[in-house]
Amino acid sequence: MRFAEIETFRALMRAGSTRKAAALLHVTQPAISQSLKRLEAQAGMLLFQRTGGRLVPTPEAQALWSEVERVFIGMEAIEHRMRSLRDFGTNQLELSCYPAFGLGFMPRALERLKAQRGDNPWPQVSLQVLSSKDVRDRVAKGVSDFGLMADELPLEGIDHSTFARFPGVVVMPQGHALARFKRVEPEQLAQVPFLALNPEDPSHRGLETALAERGASLRVMVQTPYAASVCEMAVRGLGVGLVNPVTALDYAERGLVVRRLSVDVFFSCVLALPAGKVLSTTARDFLSLMRRQLAEDEKRIQRYLR
User: Which residues form the HTH lysR-type domain (predicted)?
Assistant: First the structure.
């Protein structure tokens, strides 16, 4: 199977018609049709049903799709790394991070790196803020030097350790009725509109368990996968949430009220590394700076919890 036919297959799976696939690949519609004929002839099976001007993938095409995407992601990773090595050599940082640490913490750590570098050459930095699944996939494929991700995903195929583990903090707008308490009880959260992380999040499950033990349940107003979204909604007065303190720190200076929860519901951040890979000196140095930044953030959040 030639590369051109595989490209045609990908375009047809994405577009659903020869006309749209031709536009994606900047070729003519007859060229797409001929390429599809060759592809199905080589495969020895029908890959698309022609229905009302559309191409509907057969079950065989759907099964092939996952394998094709896996191969193309690997090829794109190789091309990306080759371009980086050509342009910048090994003085670079390829970072992937989930939003809880990628939106505020990583920029603070990079600011620390800039201060440390002084007049020394600045490395070529790529910071990709992605879902934890995408972080894990990029690290497993060696696209990223390392990544930070949540702990709800399988960790096979990567080296890993715990980067941070903190009890969650309750966040709310200024003037909220719960702001007068130094510690918030779980059952108090059941009495107010709640901004919840998605049900699969381990912290959300931990909070629901604590509430169930007290015969209470949350009044969920909004669900979201991102702690940053919870903080943004809380500071705007939409409700109360439970998030990791590193994310809360990003918003505390904007007036977000932060309080302790009376029971520990932990948030864990996993450091993910390509299996068996030795980190470059640049990556090791930055990881050390990240740990120093984390210790400083922990001290800063304590000031908001007094």
Answer: 1-58
